[in-house]
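debug: dumping io for the single-chain case to check the tokenizer round-trip. Nothing else runs in this session.
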Amino acid sequence: MRNQRPDTSDPLRRVSPVDLIVAVAVVVCVLGCTTRAQRLYRRAEAFLAQDQCQLAAVEYNRIVKDSPQDPLADDALYKLAYLYREELDNSTAALQSYRYLADNYPDSSFADDALLWIVYMGRRDLHSPDVVVSACREIDQRFADDSRLRAQAWLEAARAYRDAGQLQEARRRCEAIIEDFGDEQAVAAAASLMVADIAREQSTDPQMVVALYEQVIKQYPQTRAAAKARQAAGWVYYGVKAKSDEQRLAQQRRQAQVLEGVPPIDSYPNRPAIELLSAMQSLLQQAGAPTSLDELMVLSGLAFGFCCDLDHPEGIDRFYRNPLTLLAEEMGFGYNLWGFAETSNALAAVTKSLQSSRPLLISYGKPQPRPALIIGYKPADKELHLTLPGRGSVVVSEEAFAEQWKTAQFPRLWTPPPETGCQFSLTTCREQSSETARIKSAALRAALALDQPKLMGAPAGRAGYEAFLSHIRNCLPSEATAARQQLSQWTGVVIPRITFARRAAAQYLSRFPASLRGPARLSLAAASDSYNDLVQRWGQLGEEIEKATEQPRSPVSSSASPQQDEIWRQILQEAETICNQEQQTLQDLAAALRDIETGIVTEPGG
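debug: decoded output
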């Protein structure tokens, strides 16, 4: 799989999980591979197809480290860099991988893309024009005949200088691109547009700026840059004409927008993960994709997860990646995710989004921020309309909004968390995801929940269950009163959340057997029955732990009585049974993916 080059005319778009799964079909290593590198490559591709990115990265890295001369080494290195960049949020490692690929595999078909990614990330992540220019010069030397590649690279250099505030150098680079790469219409148009934008930032002469935008429109009429130039020229014209306060007020009134019929956010006090999913449910329903909270818990992986952190029992509700972007992709929607430092910039984005009938999801409030939806904004009246959990719609002033929003941060439910001043919205629905696709995603989330070794530093999956059992074993000695008390306090918080999650899994999986035939139908039905049973088992275990902790001590000793010790041994035995059943259910769900893909599936209306 060779992921796309950075699009230098627009922000980079992520490769979707579906693209990754489809890419497995073109793996160069076929059955019958005999070398170690080929075997590792097949394992890495399998992990990648299951969305187990950390495990895939380990296998790709082993190929590069152990078999650097193998024909698959450069391919593995390129995919490793992709995983660091897009899935594992490690831009430093991604840059190092691209640099190693460019230096050590100069004849690789990936060498040009690797250098272009160094250029792109040098601007986006390092904010270093020197790094970008150095990579551009290397591209000039090594790929002198690829004018498109060279043009794209130098355009990024111009953007890097502009981002760094070196506007004169940015303009000089743009003029050189127009002269040297005139045949590359899209890149030359983008450079010409940048010249006009820089002039707009530096000049007090609106007519001169408009002339530069009109030159872009005339010379490159069919490009995206021309469309942006038309919009920018319109804003300049507006700036020239809007001289009076009355005109500005009229414009603000035209921008006023309050969306009707946006579903409320249900309140789940002290459950930020569930409230966030409820807010996402409201966005999806408003966008014409009604769904249930159960489905969102399953597709985000929360319904299957287990994380053991005795110091932070609320950590049982953690996601392995941003659930907002993940669920948008799963449901077939595009999305915007912005981070703004200034309220004025945020409100400009609010206006644009609301005019497209798109509410915005934000973190809002003090001292404990909670999810909220911006459903309306009236600039002339300086007021915003918000939907808050359990409160419905409220109206706040711009000043009150800025105070409650600017420093509010989403709870630390995944890494890396969104920045303060974050706004999220759905965009166009590319293609509504099918019932079958969502069943497959549920099976993949189950596999990931089992194999994810840690969540935000705490043991998870198999390691989480073992940590839980280890804590119970620590409670077996009669003198372990402190350990028993700590475990009781932890389970008092955790078990209600686990039963809530497993009940969601049971209810969601029970809805699907009618659409499937054969082993897949039986697998999902069995998993649903298992989760219903686990809801009861977890609840009973919590009651037993609470009772055992409250049992009176021996009248002649401060330690627990022999009867209590026996009760704790029974608790351990039941906990072992539950943990084994949890893991077996996840394994069965992951294995059901094969049955789902090979079984006979009838879509609704089919």
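debug: round-trip ok. The chain has three domains: 17-241, 272-292+321-429, 435-598.
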